[in-house]
Amino acid sequence: MPIATINPATGETLQTFESLGAEEIEKRLERARTAFETYRTTGFDERAELLRRAADLLEKDQEDIARTVTTEMGKPIAAARAEAAKCVKAMRWYAEHAEGLLADEHPSPADVEDSGGTKAYVRYRPLGPVLAVMPWNFPLWQVIRFAAPALMAGNTGLLKHASNVPRTALYLEDLFRRAGYPEGCFQTLLIGSGAVEGVLRDPRVAAATLTGSEPAGRSVASVAGDEIKKTVLELGGSDPYLVLPSADIARAAEVAVTARTQNNGQSCIAAKRFIVHRDVYDEFTRLFVDGMKALKVGDPMDDSTDVGPLSSERGRADLEELVEDARKHGATVLCGGRRPASHPAGWFYEPTVLADVTPRMRVHREETFGPVATLYKVADLDQAIEVANDTAFGLSSNVWTRDEEEQERCARDLQAGGVYINGMTASHPAMPFGGVKRSGYGRELSGHGIREFCNVTTVWYGTPPDVPAAE
């Protein structure tokens, strides 16, 4: 795939970029190593000041970078502005909280004595240069939620961004440079996927984090495993959205529309499978379909647009194949299911709801990365949980019920990294984020995220030997 800015609303190629050659990659790896040797010794106050400066610059740049993001991957401009603002919030949060999150931990005096020591503590130390392989769907947020904690922990960063968002990738490198970070602390590598293995195997790279597809995660994890390097993976999702009889059905349906179509439906944590109790199925379905039909599909630069284009022609084709397979095997298309006639150019697809979905259909097993929802009617909570867990993924989940026993049951039994009750999944810097099963492992954000790329070091002091008195 070429490294290029291609406007998904028009299909027009706006700019292409040359991949870095071996010599330039070598220079950047050495810069990252050299920068780490001094940056790791800085104090939290200094790191926090740098990160706050970066946050201030991003806040000032909000409109310009939002337009860049929308141009490169097609999300509505209002959502792009919100993404930039969320990054600013996370950067300031880590600037404020990192020192406390990484404070030394002290075992009890009794345990220290039992260990035979006089003093002991646990210290979180940085690992070194961390390679981040990041996706295009949240091209600012995905990077910042890695970079902010990694930099505050004292690591340096190497960003291999998706090939269709090179302008955003270069902006991020420049942002940290303008904030005053030492040379080599954060660098963008304009390279194709074929060059990732060589970078990851380089002994100067200490660890890696990837957000992306399951095949990409498997590839990075296998190389890192061979090199015995730490990885964090956030992969695909097919999140369930359970609606039970005691729920506020009107509110559940309203939020469901946003939960399915946020970011033009291209979100790992978007709700995708809507599992509805039979007693409220008809009411929820009517409201949900009406809400999906009411969405405005159009120019993502227009503030009134709800759903823009998919990020690529291939992405739309993949979505069309899933819908056509479902239709062929008996699914009912309640709305959408086609390209909008009003937008012949660009990679648009109508918000779509499929009912009568069965395990025979690919859409039952595979992630739908676009504005396509699947509906399931269930008899009770047991069946709802069974359907929800009938997936290889386990990123997050959503549950709508006022019944406290049902809430607790879902929190206990849903196989996911998150259970959001009476609301939609959303990431926040104070909350750990990640999945189970084929949605990956490790966590981003919160204290859990900042500690992922730390050397958890035990420091122990024994009784010093007696020193003879001076003559």
Automatic annotation (TrEMBL):
InterPro entries: Ald_DH/histidinol_DH, Ald_DH_C, Ald_DH_N, Aldehyde_DH_dom, ALDH_GabD1-like, GABD/Sad-like. SUPFAM superfamilies: ALDH-like (SSF53720). Gene3D superfamilies: Aldehyde Dehydrogenase, Chain A, domain 1, Aldehyde Dehydrogenase, Chain A, domain 2. It comes from the Bacteria. Residues 3-459 form the Aldehyde dehydrogenase domain. Keywords: NADP, Oxidoreductase. NCBIfam families: PRK09406.1. Belongs to the aldehyde dehydrogenase family. This is NADP-dependent succinic semialdehyde dehydrogenase.
